[in-house]
Amino acid sequence: MTVNGNYVQGKARIIQAPPNPLYVVSGATARFVWDYTVDNRKEEFQLSSPTWNYNHVNETPVVIGYDHVLIDWRWTISNGTCPTRLLYPTTRVSRESNATLVISNATTADSGIYGMILLLKTLPPIARKIQLFVTTRPQFTRQFQANNILREGEDLRINCSAIGNPTPNITWVLLKDQAKEIKSQGVGFADLVIQNITRHQNGTYQCQATNNPNEYPVETQTQVTVWYKPNITFLNWTVDE
């Protein structure tokens, strides 16, 4: 932008960023849909800008790639700092459109924090960071009985546990008339505990494991049947003579 013939900086800005956190299933493609606007890249940007970075938790960020003025702002992979897992045995990282970072065939090792930075000549850099979780479907670590039969007044305890990346959230629910009533929750495992069970707690109890809000939970269930003593009612009959 020019004012009275002089160039004024400050128009560069990021106008789109991916959801944070970003969840991707292992083996799928992770797309960090960033976008930015700038009036004049040569006037506002440093020689290499934007840059795309990666850092694992508590690690120093490393440059994955950048656009460079000397090659007409084309995408360039930073071979000296880009994580080798993104380059070998095949290159899995690229840039689409204006600023979208793409990682194909994502693995759990790709999980971490990714960022795009606009490096400006005279103003502070403009950055956005996104946490990526590459998930594997939860798997239950044990199978429990399909049917549990108890006498009224007994205690019920069933453990449900699952593994996955990241560690799944576990939820026990009671299925009731198309609804689901939450009974207990945990991370990695959860116990269904009913003390002094009554006949009114008969039903189907389902254990759900999930670690990706974009995926349906993995489910398994058990039928709980409560036996109870019958109530005997005596009827008084009157016989007319």
Give a description of the structure:
The protein is mostly beta strands and 241 residues long. It has 2 domains: 13-135, Immunoglobulins (Immunoglobulin-like, Sandwich); 143-227, Immunoglobulin-like. It is built from 1 helix and 20 strands. The protein has one helix at 41-44, and strands at 2-3, 6-7, 13-16, 22-25, 30-32, 35-37, 48-55, 62-68, 74-77, 93-96, 100-103, 112-118, 126-140, 147-151, 156-165, 169-176, 179-187, 189-194, 203-210, 218-227. β16 and β17 form a beta hairpin.
Approximately what portion of the residues adopt beta-strand conformation? Answer: over 45%
Alpha carbon gap, first and last residue = 114 Å
* Helix count from the secondary structure assignment: 1
Helix content range:
under 10%
Can you tell me the CATH topology of the largest domain? Immunoglobulin-like
Reported CATH architecture of the largest domain: Sandwich
Rg, alpha carbons: 29 Å
CATH superfamily membership of the largest domain, which one? Immunoglobulins
- The H/E string reads EEEEEEHEEEEEEEEEEEEEE
Shape: elongated
Number of domains: 2
At the first level of CATH, the class of the largest domain is Mainly Beta
Low-pLDDT stretches are: 1-9
Number of strands: 20
Mean pLDDT: 91
Concise account of the structure shown:
This protein is an all-beta fold and 241 residues long.
